[in-house]
Amino acid sequence: MFKDLDPILHSQLRLAVMSLLISVKEAEFTFIKEKTNATAGNLSVQVQKLKEAGYIDVVKEFKDNYPNTTCKITKKGIKAFEEYVNTLQQYLNVKK
Fold first, then answer.
1. Winged helix DNA-binding domain: which residues (predicted)?
2. For the whole model, what pTM was predicted?
3. Where are the domains of the chain?
4. Engineering a disulfide at 21: which of 55, 60, 73, 78 sits with its beta carbon 3.0 to 4.6 angstroms away?
5. How do residues 8-20 score in pLDDT, each as one tens digit?
């Protein structure tokens, strides 16, 4: 019997955000938006869901009088991502 895939990570955009953050640890919202080709509105909603799950921290501050949002992956987020990948690998390694 397989574990279920994490529904928080089993969304294309949220998975893309986590995949980016797993490699860079933290990134500005504009960088993530650019890399994922997401709209600001959609990305904002998905980032909020990841934050509510405790997978990322979101820091909002001002940089040169402009709002700047930085997303940073948490230990819980790293663990969830690794479990997601491991579960996916189990699905892919099924021998018929």
1. 13-92
2. 0.90
3. 12-92
4. 73
5. 999 999 999 999 9
In the CATH scheme, what architecture does the domain 12-92 have? Orthogonal Bundle (1.10)
- Which pLDDT value is given to residue 61? 93
Res. 95 pLDDT band, cuts 50 70 90 = low
Residue with tokens 């574990």: 3
- DSSP states along the chain: -PPPPPTTT-SHHHHHHHHHHHHHSEEEHHHHHHHHT--HHHHHHHHHHHHHTTSEEEEEEEETTEEEEEEEE-HHHHHHHHHHHHHHHHHHT---
H, E, C per residue of 10-35? CCHHHHHHHHHHHHHCEEEHHHHHHH
